[in-house]
Design brief:
alpha+beta, seven-stranded antiparallel sheet, 34% helix, 16% strand, binds 6-diazenyl-5-OXO-L-norleucine
């Protein structure tokens, strides 16, 4: 991490002369990348999964941009600096808090299925169904990122898109030194990349994965973003870049059309609201599911003596795992795109529903059976996606999660454009009768859950994470670590995590990080729980970034997850 940050500091200013980032703005991270470390900000702060993206966002804030300008700058810079996790070939959700108006809003820029999509579209692919869902042209949903960034900037930003893209262009042009994280993900996805990458795309190093220390440059992406900066997002949705995108998708067996791309719109939504004790939670509503399930989870937990049990104690892990299994049953039964299916949201997030579920959980024995045997949860190991948070000097806040789904998406790159296309069609359910089956113009349910927490009417924590289906469980554990166990933010983020789920009415194992004490694991097993021990800091459980406002101390703490390359910076 220290090496990465040194590189960020050593590079030229990303936004032009006069705005070089002063060294004192970034505190050196600890030598042990996993040691809890809170970045400090007094007026403004950015946290994200790559130091160059943080630098670009912070420079925008220092130039007078607001949190929305800073967030979109950071989001675009992540396309260049962390290209395997998100970018203009993907989509996501952002929640924006406007301090002066005391108003919070959400922008949904989740990808959509092409209009020729149908519930059984992958079913005739037989054995190779998974392959078609993740690495063919059929896997690509209509990207929403640029439309979302543009809508946010036009409505709530103060700077033009071209200025927000400048940092990304500089990073793509100049390149950066590949981190161990980048290299290991590049190796993991090698097969898909070899199959789908066009000649000379740059996402492999002369046909081989990048090694830590190699330089990664992406002049094609720089050029693409320059065209968009000059001509607007129309260049992507209706222009030459769009034509190349549709051609690349169709060449790989896809069904996307120019009309699908031209008709894509990001939309503004009312945030979903919940409470935990004296805390108010605002988050992205469906088709995002992370925030909704976090509210459900906290509703159930509210009635339990978690402080007495202790963080990661046997009763804590047992009860929370049982709750997760009920929530996954609800998720598979009810969650779809609300533009097309009716979701009983008020009931799902009601305290009554939570109390009814909690009353079924037994103290020292797993139930073994959970609702909705006919609904299967497809647990995926990957922990892709990226999350960033920004607070500006006026107290405006953005929490933004974006993704191209699997690391490196489909691995399809439209000719000489430098950006990767998502495989978000894989977030539709495999079962054609599911409420989350593919359909024309449907958005697949997402696990993302960018959120802002309020106490006494004032925002105090912005948070989010990648990690697929683990997102809401990981975020809930971080929230409890802060609010119940009194941890500073980064300690709360770095603390060992666990996860469980149910599928078809049966429990999944309890996955724990290897830092869990053996006696806790043994005691859970003695209760009849199956336990799966994973790496000590496993990106399976996400890579959360957050900002906590410590009003009494008049500072902000930034927490960035060492399970990925997260850093923060403030001034
Ligand atoms: O939107 C989602 O929920 C996912 N596409 C995010 C991807 C992820 O975090 C890892 N998926 N297993």
């Amino acid at each position: 991490m220290a090496g990465l940050l040194g590189l960020a500091l050593g590079s030229v200013s990303l936004l032009g002369p006069g705005c070089r980032l002063a060294k004192e703005n970034i505190q050196p991270p600890p030598a042990d990348r996993h040691a809890p470390y809170n970045y400090i900000g007094r007026q403004a702060m950015v946290v994200a999964a790559h130091p160059l993206a943080v630098q670009a966002g912070l420079e925008m804030l220092k130039r007078g941009g607001n949190a929305v300008d800073g967030a979109i700058t950071t989001a675009a810079a992540l396309n260049a600096a962390e290209p395997f996790a998100s970018g203009i070939g993907g989509g996501g959700f952002m929640i924006i808090h406007l301090a002066r108006e005391k108003r919070t809003t959400v922008i949904n820029f989740r990808e959509k299925a092409p209009h020729l999509a149908s519930p059984a579209m992958f079913k005739d692919k037989g054995e190779e169904e998974k392959e078609w869902r993740t690495s063919s042209g059929l896997a690509v949903a209509v990207p929403g990122a640029l439309a979302g960034w543009d809508l946010a900037l036009r409505k709530y930003g103060t700077r033009p898109l071209a200025e927000a893209l400048a940092g990304a262009i500089a990073i793509a042009e100049q390149g950066f030194i590949v981190s161990p994280t980048f290299s290991s993900i590049n190796k993991d996805e090698y097969e898909r990349l070899v199959k789908n990458l066009p000649e000379g795309s740059g996402y492999l190093n002369e046909g081989l994965p990048y090694e830590p220390g190699d330089r990664f440059r992406n002049p094609d992406l720089a050029q693409t973003l320059r065209f968009i900066a000059a001509n607007g997002v129309k260049e992507f949705y209706e222009g030459e870049i769009g034509r190349k995108l549709v051609a690349a998708v169709r060449a790989k067996g896809g069904i996307m059309t120019a009309e699908d791309l031209a008709s894509y719109r990001a939309v503004e939504l009312e945030p979903l609201q919940g409470t935990y004790k004296d805390i108010r939670i605002l988050t992205a509503p469906p088709p995002a599911s992370g925030g909704l399930h976090l509210i459900q989870f906290l509703n159930i937990i509210e009635g339990w003596p978690v402080r007495k049990w202790g963080q990661n104690s046997v009763p804590y892990v047992h009860h929370l795992s049982e709750a997760l299994r009920f929530i996954f049953a609800d998720r598979e039964r009810y969650l779809g795109d609300p533009d097309f299916v009716s979701i009983p949201v008020p009931w799902l997030i009601s305290k009554d529903h939570a109390a009814a579920l909690a009353s079924r959980i037994r103290d020292s024995v797993p139930l073994g059976r959970y609702p909705y045997e006919e609904y299967k949860h497809e647990e995926k190991d990957a922990a892709n996606t990226t999350h960033l948070c920004v607070i500006d000097r006026d107290g405006n806040i953005v929490a933004l999660t974006q993704s191209i789904n699997d690391f490196f998406g489909t691995g399809i790159v439209p000719e000489r454009t430098g950006f990767l296309l998502n495989d978000h069609m894989d977030d539709f359910a495999a079962a054609a009768q599911s409420v989350n089956a593919p359909g024309p113009g449907h958005r697949p349910v997402s696990s993302m859950g960018p959120l802002i927490l309020f106490k006494n009417g004032k925002p105090f924590l912005a948070l989010g994470s990648p990690g697929g289906a683990r997102i809401f469980s990981s975020l809930t554990q971080i929230v409890l670590n802060v609010t119940e166990f009194g941890m500073p933010l980064d300690e709360a983020i770095e603390a060992p995590r666990f996860f469980s789920f149910s599928s078809g009415g049966r429990p999944g194992p309890i996955a724990v990080e290897a830092r869990f004490p053996q006696e806790v694991i043994t005691a859970l097993q003695a209760m009849g729980q199956e336990v799966e021990v994973r790496e000590a800091y496993d990106k399976y459980f996400g890579g959360a970034q957050g900002i906590m406002v410590l009003r009494d101390k008049k500072i902000m703490h930034g927490g960035a997850d060492s399970r990925r390359d997260g850093v923060g910076a403030g001034y």
